[in-house]
């Protein structure tokens, strides 16, 4: 069994999605009047939101609803009736309650939110491509007494609740399921590459999609592919965790295809010179040609360099780095969220490479990131330029990871 949880602002739309066209059965309701339709229950939630809106006037609750999806496997729920799903929903909520509050009903930390006093409804959803029935649970984050549930780490709390039930019932653990799916997708990637007569991204992508996966591309403004993510149901697998040594990332995919299609080296026969004479025309050797020859040999080869002028808050920053380091940096960029442009993460990495830490922080905050950089940030004495570039890319990936609004406000980052 796996479980996910997050706070949302679109409770009405989620209610409609989970129950419209009679594709779901109501399994459990709590703190609602009898006989309400799903949308009427959402209306009752909104009534609570409006009732206590003055209490949260200084800090409005922008995401007043908690949405959770709980999905056991087909084998785990074989033969279940609605009563079985009801008992299961109660059991899950009991475990989830342990994670979000203490026995006396107080939230861990500040607040007095009580899950037993919250409006909750759970519906059994059948409309899924996988054919696996699963629960949608909606919880009002403002309880009947006007106390607010802290939504920090609700996803982690849902996962822990699912883990406790898996252990209790002897079900397969989510991490084992994840590893199995990871291997399944990796094997599929290698199989598709092995069957391709020539390397072609579109053929590779079509091969994955024909197996039921979805492929999410990450391209820059010029349309160049820098990464991709494979979706299996509700699970996401970045290309960087597939394969061996990141050999299924976008930048290494063609090289991996070549390894799977070794070409025998052709035997080159030396041309016979028997019975022939070869002459070469030689130009007179003079002091002038000797000087040119000497200069040509001693002149160093100009290194390939990437240069860019970047503007941050109306201030110009000059970026200069070896082209090899720039390429290594681009290969190590992993967009942390679909809402974050690839260029933003790359710009943060380049600014870090040049030790423009404040400017890098400003750019990361512009895409709702906001992590911090150590005060001793910098290139190690014996660190290779490419390794330094990769380290900057990895830190940029983390800096640009969007944080929840509550975390940003706690850090003093306002929009």
CATH architecture of the largest domain: 2-Layer Sandwich
Beta-strand content: 15-25%
Strand order of the biggest β-sheet: 1-3-5-4-2
Number of helices: 13
Provide the succession of SSEs: EHEHEHEEHHHEEEHHEEHHHHH
The unreliable regions are: 102-110, 264-283, 292-302, 405-415
For the record, give the distance between the C-alpha atoms at the N and C termini, rounded to a whole number.
38 Å
Q: What is the mean predicted local confidence, pLDDT?
A: 79
Biggest sheet character: 5 strands, antiparallel
Radius of gyration: 29 Å
SSE-based structural type = alpha+beta
* CATH class descriptor of the largest domain: Alpha Beta
**CATH topology name of the largest domain:** BirA Bifunctional Protein, domain 2
Shape: globular
- What is the total domain count? 3
Percentage of residues in helical conformation: 25-40%
Tally of strands: 10
Description:
- The chain has three domains: 2-172, 2-Layer Sandwich (BirA Bifunctional Protein, domain 2), CATH 3.30.930; 176-247, no CATH class; 305-410, no CATH class.
- Helices cover 39% and strands 16% of the residues.
- It is built from 13 helices and ten strands.
- The chain has a five-stranded antiparallel sheet with strand order 1-3-5-4-2, with helices on both faces. Strands 6-7-8 form a three-stranded antiparallel sheet, covered by helices on one side.
- Strand 9 (305-312) and strand 10 (315-322) form a beta hairpin.
- Helix 9 (323-332) runs parallel beside helix 12 and helix 10 crosses helix 12 (385-399).
- The longest helix has 21 residues, at 174-194.
- The chain starts with a strand and ends in a 5-residue tail after the last helix.
């Amino acid at each position: 069994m796996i479980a996910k949880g997050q706070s949302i602002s679109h409770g009405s739309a989620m209610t409609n999605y989970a129950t419209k066209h009679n594709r779901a059965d109501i399994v459990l309701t709590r703190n609602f009047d009898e006989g309400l339709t799903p949308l009427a229950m959402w209306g009752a939630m909104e009534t609570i939101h409006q009732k206590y809106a003055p209490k949260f006037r200084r800090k409005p609750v922008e995401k007043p609803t908690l949405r959770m999806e709980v999905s056991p496997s087909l084998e785990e729920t074989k033969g279940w009736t609605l009563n079985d799903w009801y008992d299961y929903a109660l059991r899950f909520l009991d475990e989830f309650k342990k994670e979000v509050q203490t026995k006396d009903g107080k939230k861990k930390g500040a607040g007095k939110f009580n899950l037993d006093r919250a409006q909750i409804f759970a519906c059994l959803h059948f409309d899924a491509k996988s054919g696996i029935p699963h629960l949608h649970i909606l919880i009002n984050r403002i309880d009947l007494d006007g106390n607010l549930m802290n939504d920090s780490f609700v996803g982690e709390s849902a996962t822990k609740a699912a883990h406790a039930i898996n252990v209790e019932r002897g079900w397969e653990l989510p991490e084992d399921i994840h590893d199995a799916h990871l291997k399944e997708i990796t094997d599929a990637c290698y199989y598709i590459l092995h069957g391709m007569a020539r390397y072609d991204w579109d053929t590779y992508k079509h091969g994955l999609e024909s197996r039921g996966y979805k492929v999410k591309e990450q391209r820059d403004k010029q349309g160049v592919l820098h990464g991709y993510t494979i979706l299996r149901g509700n699970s996401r697998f970045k290309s960087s965790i597939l394969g061996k040594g990141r050999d299924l990332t976008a930048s290494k995919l063609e090289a991996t295809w070549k390894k799977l299609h070794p070409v025998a080296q052709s035997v080159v026969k030396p041309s016979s010179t028997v019975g022939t004479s070869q002459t070469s025309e030689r130009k007179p050797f003079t002091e002038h040609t000797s000087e040119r020859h000497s200069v040509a040999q001693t002149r160093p080869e100009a290194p390939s360099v990437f240069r860019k002028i970047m503007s941050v808050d109306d201030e110009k920053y000059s970026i200069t780095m070896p082209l090899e380091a720039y390429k290594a940096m681009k290969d190590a960029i992993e967009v942390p969220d679909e809402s974050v442009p690839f260029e933003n993460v790359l710009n943060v990495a380049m600014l870090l490479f040049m030790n423009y830490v404040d400017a890098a922080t400003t750019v990361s905050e512009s895409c709702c990131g906001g992590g911090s950089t150590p005060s001793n940030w910098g290139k190690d004495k014996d660190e290779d330029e490419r390794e330094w570039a990769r380290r900057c890319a990895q830190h940029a990936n983390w800096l640009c990871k969007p944080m929840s609004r509550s975390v940003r406000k706690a850090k003093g980052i306002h929009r």
